Amino acid sequence: MSYPLEPSPEDMREMGEAALGFVVDFLRGLPDTPASDYDGAEEFRRGFREDVPLDGVRFEAALDTVRRATAKGVTPTSWRTRSTGS
Q: What's the CA angle centered on 65, arms 61 and 69, to 5 degrees?
């Protein structure tokens, strides 16, 4: 099944709300999240090594990939660094 490259306004709104929900949940959870969690991260990272897909994927599937990566410490450590900003 292919997905349109130009989603409808309603679809864009749903994707935006899903992305915002992810960001809010991610930021809300930071105080209780370890600064790093690399246990099994190398194996997890290898799972991302694949050819570029010929067909698009559902937005929720792509967001789930980001969700799993941020939960496992595969993202830049600066995203999880707690700092006063100075």
A: 165
Count of CA atoms in the C-beta half-sphere (13 A) of 47: 11
Cβ neighbours of residue 24 closer than 8 Å, sequence gap 6 or more: none
Question: What residue segments make up the domains of the chain, in order of their start?
Answer: 9-74
CB 57, CB 3: distance < 8 Å:
yes
Q: Which tens digit of pLDDT belongs to each residue from 14-35?
A: 999 999 999 999 889 888 877 7
pTM (2 d.p.): 0.66
Q: pLDDT band for position 5 (50/70/90)? A: confident
- CA-to-CA distance for 39 and 81, rounded, in angstroms? 18
What is the Cα–Cα distance from 72 to 38, expressed in whole angstroms? 6
Structure token pair of residue 6: 């130009």
